[in-house]
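Long-time lurker. I teach an intro course on protein structure, and each term I like to show students one example going from raw sequence to a predicted 3D structure in token notation. This year I'd like something fresh instead of my usual example. Would anyone be willing to generate the tokens for the chain below so I can use it in lecture? Attribution to the forum is fine with me.
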Amino acid sequence: MKRIKKGDQIIVIAGKDKGRQGTVLDVADDSILVETINMAKKHTKANPMAGIEGGIVEKEMPMDISNVMLFNPMTNKGDRVGFKLLEDGRKVRYFKSNGEVVDA
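-- Reply from a regular --
Happy to contribute to a lecture. Here you go:
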């Protein structure tokens, strides 16, 4: 089980976008893709057969997963995440600061 999953709200703790929040689009082994964070200009060549228009396109680029923390809405800050087993045998993520379960 991973500490950060697709669809989670995160906050950036290091880099050019420090302090910004976003939603996780994709998680790889050690990198993460976040909506509207770590944007880069990409030059694309037109391809009329595929319907792709050429020009300069802004797109999200992957960033290292160590540069983000899971956003805790109770404290409005980034928070560390731990794992624990519930009475019914499910393994869930929880916030270390207040013990609230992340997964409902």
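Some talking points for your students: DSSP finds no helices and ten strands in the chain. The mean pLDDT is 94.
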